[in-house]
């Protein structure tokens, strides 16, 4: 077994959660890597959708943006952005929405909008993009992020997209009939919401990770499942697939302009 | 009637101080050359609409042209934040700007409603999301059949929309292909539409009947600007200059470096410079 | 998961007495073979939805299968009236049927809303038109921004939609091209979707990226029925049998002649007969 | 000058009303013939739209239906039916909507739905199709029909599509901001709405037609303009264009199946 980084473990653990039959709405970054590792290993027929309108893509390198040319080149079909959000997302065709987060709380609510006050932000983040409706129209939501006290907080500064709100049946009370966040994959552990309270609970620790490490890098008091197991370490195939993908990606993103932006 | 014009003239004839304007392109086919021409002509007080206001709006905001931005994702896609937009929103440099923020679904539906001649769009959106509390242009209606509460947003109707497209034919019909994004809707929603294209071909007779074509009578002016989308890309012509997006993060981080870069690469440049910028990216397309 | 099935089985597995069903096709690609198979299997109490219920609904109504029709143009396009539908509406033969009538805009928006997962559609429609007075499913809402009164109709959500398409690939992705009509929306709005195709090809790798493709996971069953759209046509395969549309006007004018024609050409026929019917029309395509 | 039929005069007179710059939403039958004669004579660049989604068509033969293959083969682009009604018609892109009628009243209101009572019709007609929204969203409406007392009536049985309602500013009172019917071309005359009352008024009589003939074949008391002129007779070119088009059309519609429907 090769050694592996926490980020590699996170991406590979996330990839394992995806099934061959899933129709997955893919966010950029860690979600994109995980989805493509799944496609290149155990889920060759998974349908990956990017919000740029590409349906059923199979990129050889990870896109830098959600609209890189290769997504279209390899897609089953490419539709307009209004159609993407109306027929495919709102139409209930997406089984898994895969999101990252700048700030996350224990109920899976996500902030990617602002740090600080909305009207006078300390940091203006990019905003929600597709996330507010991915969060309510996808069958369920997987979240992936590297743990940090800044990122995993007791109270997020802004509800960009709704998870389980205050927990319990808060989604149903707002008329949202999809499952919401059902899985959180970090660089240290795998979390699932408690069946009743919907609070994220650690169910698997990645190899070599301790409870203390998980708590130290999380801004809320962590709940651990009574029976906790260890995430199987990445297999050689998984690691090789991820590393090859990342190497191809790095070469491609630096490549075309010889690593230099083309201005005079 | 559509007119084929040099870009300088197409921009001068169609954009005015105080206009509500969309330079659209969802990652692909971003009308950079048109935006740079608008920067050179120094318009002020613009309301800038775009789903993904990336580098070109960062540049226009940094140059003090924007009164307001209407958007759903104000980031450098795949890279991070937009530092000039942040500086304006957080610090009021070079001027304060109003912000009207939606989700992608909200903006896409608003453009679609604009193209459809409707005053508003309805969709299942924003449930539990806080944007609905800070944006008074997000309202709701009840379905008259089921009672379900749906989100409503006003349609987007720009004074003028700029897009970049692969080609026009001699009559002025325009083809957009690949990731078609929101361009058709942005053109049809607008009072005036200016299109930069990679090239002009004699006719579209050999094209598949179901492609995205904007008939000539939906377009106000067409300008031929090869490479006009750089550092974005034109499917079938040249690849995305990802290095430029990464580099922008550094350029835009510093006000002085930003100003110097704009002076050299925009103010002292011309639409003719775009062809050379994509020369090295054509093989990768 | 999509299944490739003989048409007899695809219809038997997906259509039930009492279902709300759409056999869609806007003049082009009408799923005649599937409708004839449904007639042979003798379903009853169907709610038949279609923008333009032409020959196949005239036939299904005449055979007593319909409880209700939902439509926007109940004519033989370019020829005149639909005589079996008239006989049912005017005289209750062979049974009375309920009528829910919309405009094309109303139906198109209702399908679009169904595909979009919405409970209703809004549009600028029916002003001064009397349909709004006789159809309780036409209501109105006020735009929350401008106060403009817009028409509202419930979305169409069939239990099952049947369409005919040019081709499927081996995975079960389906291509519709030419006059694409309302087929994509009719499939995506339905709980189940059955597609008859002219042929199956190994893959769609050489297709333009922006064509109308229904991914395999949106389809329940695919049946290969060459000629399955006759007397309608399949763009690229065979031409419209205009003579058959003209002839239908005579056949349907008389109850006995209608019954005899149905017995000979539908009840005693099979999906395999369609290929021969279009043999003479292939050169004209 | 060749002799010509009243129907030929009607079609040719209608074709002359169309301009090269027009974007015309074409109904089947007489409107389709008139629009294509215009395209083949004085308005080569006219944009013809059929509700099947074909934009900018130039058919060599007249389609039997609104969705014949040649409309797509010769179109600038072919879009979906929802897009046709949303972006192109409702979006205000159509300058002229060209309609026929089963019943017409003097204010340009049209019935193609039922003769008799809606719930218990004497004759169930095909219905409105695209007409209800063509009538309100097109810049203006041209109507063409052969005159008859059955067709041109004092009171239509059903308002399929709205013309000028009860006349005057009735359209504006209903929130309709397009012009509505501005021209009626029959086999006997050309009519325009009175500026104030909006009642159709005969402004031109076709060659050889008398006021009495117009009145005898019309179910309401006809108003004639004070200064009335004669419609210029069809030119040789117009007649030849129309007749060639109709001959090609007849051959094509009978042709493929050797004039016989292909059943066993």
UniProtKB/TrEMBL annotation, chains A, D:
InterPro entries: CoA_trans_fam_I, NagB/RpiA_transferase-like. Keywords: Transferase. Coiled coil: none annotated. GO terms for molecular function: CoA-transferase activity. This is Glutaconate CoA-transferase subunit B.
Automatic annotation (TrEMBL), chains B, C:
This is Glutaconate CoA-transferase subunit A. One of its GO terms (molecular function) is CoA-transferase activity. Pfam families: CoA_trans. InterPro entries: CoA_trans_fam_I, NagB/RpiA_transferase-like. The keyword Zinc does not apply. It comes from the Bacteria. Keywords: Transferase. Gene3D superfamilies: Glutaconate Coenzyme A-transferase.
């Amino acid at each position: 077994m090769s050694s592996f980084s926490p980020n590699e473990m996170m991406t590979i653990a996330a990839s394992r959660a995806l099934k061959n039959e899933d129709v997955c709405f893919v966010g950029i970054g860690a979600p994109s890597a995980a989805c493509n590792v799944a496609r290149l290993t155990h889920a060759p027929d998974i349908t990956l959708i990017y919000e740029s309108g590409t349906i059923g893509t199979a990129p050889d390198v990870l896109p830098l943006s959600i609209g890189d040319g290769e997504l279209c080149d390899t897609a089953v079909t490419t539709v307009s952005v209004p159609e993407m959000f109306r027929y495919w997302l709102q139409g209930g065709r997406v089984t898994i929405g895969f999101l990252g987060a700048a700030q996350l709380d224990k109920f899976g609510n996500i902030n990617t909008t602002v740090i600080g006050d909305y009207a006078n932000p300390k940091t203006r983040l990019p905003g929600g993009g597709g996330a507010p409706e991915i969060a309510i129209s996808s069958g369920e939501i997987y979240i992936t992020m590297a743990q940090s006290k800044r990122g995993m907080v007791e109270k997020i500064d802004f509800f960009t997209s709704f998870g389980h709100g205050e927990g319990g049946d808060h989604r149903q009370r707002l008329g949202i009939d999809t499952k919401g966040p059902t899985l959180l994959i970090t660089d240290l552990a795998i979390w699932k919401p408690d069946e009743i309270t919907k609070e994220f609970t650690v169910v698997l620790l990645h190899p070599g990770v301790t409870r203390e490490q998980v708590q130290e890098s999380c801004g809320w008091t962590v709940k651990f499942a009574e029976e906790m197991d260890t995430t199987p370490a990445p297999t050689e195939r998984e690691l090789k697939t991820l590393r090859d993908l990342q190497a191809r990606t790095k070469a491609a993103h630096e490549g075309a302009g010889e690593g230099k932006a083309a201005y005079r | 009637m559509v007119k084929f014009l040099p870009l300088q003239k197409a921009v001068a004839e169609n954009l005015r101080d105080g206009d509500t304007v969309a330079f659209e392109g969802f990652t692909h086919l971003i009308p950079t050359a048109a935006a740079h021409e608008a920067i050179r002509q120094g318009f002020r007080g613009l309301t800038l609409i775009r789903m993904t206001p990336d580098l070109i709006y960062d540049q226009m905001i940094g140059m003090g042209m924007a009164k307001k931005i209407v958007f759903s994702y104000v980031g450098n896609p795949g890279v991070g934040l937009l530092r000039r937009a942040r500086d304006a929103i957080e610090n009021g440099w070079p001027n304060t700007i109003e912000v009207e923020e939606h989700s992608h679904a909200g903006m896409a539906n608003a453009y679609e409603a604009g193209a459809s001649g409707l005053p508003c769009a309805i969709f299942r959106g924003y449930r539990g999301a806080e944007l609905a509390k800070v944006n008074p242009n997000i309202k709701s209606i009840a379905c008259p059949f089921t009672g379900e509460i749906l989100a409503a947003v006003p349609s987007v109707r720009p004074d003028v929309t700029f897009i970049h497209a692969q080609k026009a034919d001699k009559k002025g019909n325009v083809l957009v292909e690949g990731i078609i994004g929101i361009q058709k809707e942005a053109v049809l929603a607008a009072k005036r539409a200016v299109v930069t294209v990679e090239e002009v071909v004699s006719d579209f007779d050999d094209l598949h009947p179901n492609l995205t074509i904007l008939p000539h009578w939906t377009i106000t002016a067409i300008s031929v600007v090869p490479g006009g989308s750089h550092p974005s890309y034109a499917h079938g012509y040249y690849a995305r200059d990802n290095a430029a997006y990464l580099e922008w993060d550094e350029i835009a981080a510093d006000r002085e470096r930003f100003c110097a870069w704009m002076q050299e690469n925009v103010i002292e440049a011309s639409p003719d410079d775009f062809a050379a910028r994509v020369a090295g990216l054509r093989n990768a397309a």
